[in-house]
Amino acid sequence: MAGVTKQLCGVKCPGADRDSVISKTPMWNHKCVRFSTYDTLERNQEWFIWRSGACLQQNITLEVHCGFPEKQRK
Fold first, then answer.
1. Phi, psi of 40 (to 5 degrees)
2. d(CA 35, CA 50)
3. DSSP assignment, residue 59?
4. What is the rounded distance in angstroms from the CA atom of residue 64 to the CA atom of residue 74?
5. Which pTM does this prediction carry?
6. Are strands 38-43 and 46-51 parallel, antiparallel or unpaired?
7. pLDDT at 73 over 90
8. Burial 33-61 (b: 16+ CB within 10 A, else e)
9. Which of 69, 1, 71, 12 is nearest to 34 (CA)?
10. Sign of dihedral through CA atoms 17, 60, 27, 6?
């Protein structure tokens, strides 16, 4: 989404190789739409959740899942 201002908030997931939003509350809030007005992103090995547009003004809870690399089996 080029040209869209995103507000970032750090997520504590040290060592994670993936991160995603697994739920939002309230679910019926249509001003917050994943991939469009909120999601997660990685920058310099740190994870963030971002919101933009109308979602910035919403009172919403986003639950985030941190994924960690599996140890390689020998």
1. -115, 160
2. 10
3. -
4. 31
5. 0.81
6. antiparallel
7. no
8. eeeebbbbeeeeeebbbbbbbebeebeee
9. 1
10. negative
